[in-house]
Each structure stands twice: as C-alpha cells, then as structure tokens.
Amino acid sequence: MSRWALIWRRFRRNKVAIGGLIVIGVLFVLAFLGPLVTPWSYEQIDGTSFLKPPSPKHWFGTSQIGQDIFAQTMRGLQKSMIIGLLVGVISTSLAAFFGATAGYFRGTVERVNLFVISLLLVVPDFLIIAIISPRLRDSSWLWLVLLISIFTWMLTAMVIYNLTLSLKQREFVTAARFMGVPARQIITRHILPNMASFLIIDATLSVGAAVLLESGLSYFGFGVQPPDVSLGTLIADGTGSALTYPWVFLFAGAFLVILVLAVSVVGDGLRDAVDPQSQAKAEL
C-alpha cells in the first residue's frame, strides 16, 4: 500500500475529520450555487423591506437598508473562502521556497533568507496591513490576499528549513548531487515531495487562520471594501443590531464559526493520519 493510500485510509477512520470535509464541501456548494437560486443580488436593495426578519421573500431577512441577508451572506462566504484558499496556497509556497532554499544552499542564501524570516516574525502584521490596506481601497481585493500571505508563512518556513537540513543528508539527495542534477530540481523533485504531507497539512490549517485574519481586518474596515462584502464586513455591519435584529448578525457569524471549525478538524485529521502518534502525544 502506498503512503498516500495509507494516509487516506487513516483519515477515513476519523469520523470528525470526514464530517468537517463534508461540511466544507456543503459550504462551498452553498456559497457558489446559493446566489443562483435567490432572486436577489447582494447589492440589490428592496425599498419595501427594511430590517425584516426571515421570510419566504427574504430567507435570512433584510438589512438596515433593505439588502437581502441571504444573498449577502453567500457572497461573503464565497469571498472569505476564496481569500482563505489563496492565502493558504501562497503562504505555504512562500514558506517552501524560503525554507528549502535556506536549508539546501546554506551560506549567504541561508543568512539572507533567515534574516527575512526573522524580520517578518517581529513585524506587527495586523498593524502593517491596517496601515497599507486603506491606500489600496480602489485596488483589487487580491492585494489583500497578497498582504495577508506575506505575513503568514514564516513559522512554517522555519520548520521546512530544519526538515531540509535533515533531508539534505539522505542518500537519495547525495546521489542526485553526484549525478549532476541541478539544485532547483533536487529541491522540487526530491526534497519538497518528501515533506508534501506537512505542506498539505500546513496549507489546510492556513486557510482557517487566513479566514479569521481576513474577517478581523474586514471587521475593523481594513479588509474587503464596499460595495463588496465578506463575512467580516457582514459581522461588523450587524454588530450594532445583534440583540435587537439578530438575523443581521447571526447568519454571517454562524457561517464563519462553522467554516473555521470545519477547516480546523480537517487539518487535525490530516495531521493524525500522517503521524498517528501525534494524537497519543496530544492526549499525554
């Protein structure tokens, strides 16, 4: 049985992780198909319905200015999931590049990469993003993805750096060097594939962390900008009405909690499937 088949077999035995994977799939389908089954757009205003509770006309109710909460929540869920996924991929890729090159090349490359990692680790990321993002209000939300990605990969890079130092001494890497295989190919074909399990787990967990960070930034007005919405902006808009008109706040908050929990349990399930002893160690 191959390693990946064994990992999948272990993962399938984790009912909680499988449940989280199913929940993520349902949320993904709901986020992208939900706007197609409602007659309302997330930007559309119903001038006859202001702060109306859930009804057959507006499934999740309406906001202070008559916007359909269901359409807005689906748009916000869609945006938050896309941002989380992109940040997970980009941040893990940055960590793999800086960590692997520092561990393999050593010397000047190692010192420069470790300096960059150490510098970004001490930089107050939330504050920097909050300062820069207002200057990008008229730009694409992809700039927000890039900003978040820049400040979320350093700890993973340090782990990859240490893994690379270990893998570099293995026989298959030594043999590849003696055969004249270029360093770039050794890193991409021999070193990184041998830590693929770790990279997948890290990317999965990074998605949940990115969704929370984006929601926090958007809550304070530093993330996704109007007229677009994310779960963070919807929660911010509904906070003042959380007790008087709870549907304005409740649905966005509930979807955020469900999404982050689902991603977290899937990440934990992958970790336990890759390293079965990790669960026993955690219990001890």
How would you describe the overall organization of this protein?
The chain has 284 residues and is mostly helical. It has a domain at 3-7 and 16-23 and 88-272: MetI-like (MetI-like fold, Orthogonal Bundle), CATH 1.10.3720.10. The chain has helices spanning 3-13, 15-37, 69-105, 107-122, 125-132, 142-150, 154-167, 171-178, 183-191, 196-219, 231-238, 247-274, 277-283. It is elongated, with a radius of gyration of 22 Å. Residues 280-284 have low confidence and may be disordered.
What gap, in angstroms, lies between the N and C termini? 30 Å
Largest beta-sheet details: none
What gross morphology would you assign?
A: elongated
Gyration radius over CA:
22 Å
Let me know the number of strands.
0
By DSSP (H or I, 4+ residues per run), the number of helices equals 13
- Share in β-strands: under 5%
CATH top level label of the domain at 3-7 and 16-23 and 88-272 = Mainly Alpha
Question: Could you estimate the helical fraction of the residues in percent?
Answer: over 70%
- The H-and-E topology, N to C, reads as HHHHHHHHHHHHH
Find the CATH superfamily of the domain at 3-7 and 16-23 and 88-272: MetI-like
- Uncertain runs with pLDDT below 50, 5 residues or more? 280-284
CATH architecture of the domain at 3-7 and 16-23 and 88-272, by name, is: Orthogonal Bundle
**CATH-assigned fold name of the domain at 3-7 and 16-23 and 88-272:** MetI-like fold
